[in-house]
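for the writeup, i need someone to sanity check this before i put it in the appendix. the sequnce is what the collaborator sent (i think, or maybe the updated version? ugh). structure was predicted straight from it, no edits. if anything looks off just tell me and ill rerun, i have time this weekend
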Amino acid sequence: MPFVSVVIPAKNAEATLGETLESLTAQSFRDFEVVLVNDGSTDGTAAVAASFAERLSIKVVTHESSRGVAESINDGLRASDSEFVARLDADDLAAPQRLERQLSFLSSRPGIDVCGSHMQIFGVENGQRVDRHVLAHPTESAEIRTALLQRCAISHPSVLCRRSTFERFGFYDPRFDFAEDYELWCRASLLGAQFANIPEVLTHYRKHAGQVSSQKAQLQYERDIAIKARYMAAMLQGENPGLLPQFIALQTQFRSRDIALTVLQQCGPTMTRLARAVPHSDEYARIVTGSLMRHLR
């Protein structure tokens, strides 16, 4: 039984999957398998996966029709029984030392359930890779759990976690496709999960127009707000957070400063009460200050 299963959902990923799998052939840690979930692809995704059969331990789960990202990852989890599970998308790249570094980190920090890392964002222009910026999140659990009030502070393609994480906190919820990772991390946080991000680039994230996050922005925003509202309500012991999720969401753009002020007047008292419930006051202060500057400047 492999020590790690790398779960990759793939739908019509023929153009990028080969590069993703190639990055896994270069891993310094070798005791792993790839569980590729072919989610109703109509291109050459299956053929690309098959071409790596002699270079990687690769298991393919096939959906005859698309079931979505959450169900695909869940089926990948069910098809594996490794002690650790890593996530990677079919257009992203793993740094050669990724699995080794994350396993070493979790070995030294047995209380951590979910381990992410910094990510290098890149694109391809005129056939050439162009590095854009590094996406860095807080590194310690209390900061991460507080940052979840505003954003998904664990980058999904960078995650390696213990299988027991899913046994304790549940699988991905298909009702939150396009934000399935954010929902799971918030749910797990409320149930006591501990998180960490290694402050190194261990995953390279490809940004391009065909991504779900570009095509389904409105649906993603609506689910993002619903997740925030539930997370805040739990921290507030059942109190409805009102418009606070919208005020602190990074995607929210009010049509005018006056509208933003009206929303702030409505949610200001809730914002103050939430300050007494968060795990990390400094991170919460950064969230609030940034939101005020963004909407009221």
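Residues 240-296 form one domain. The mean pLDDT is 96.
thx in advance!!
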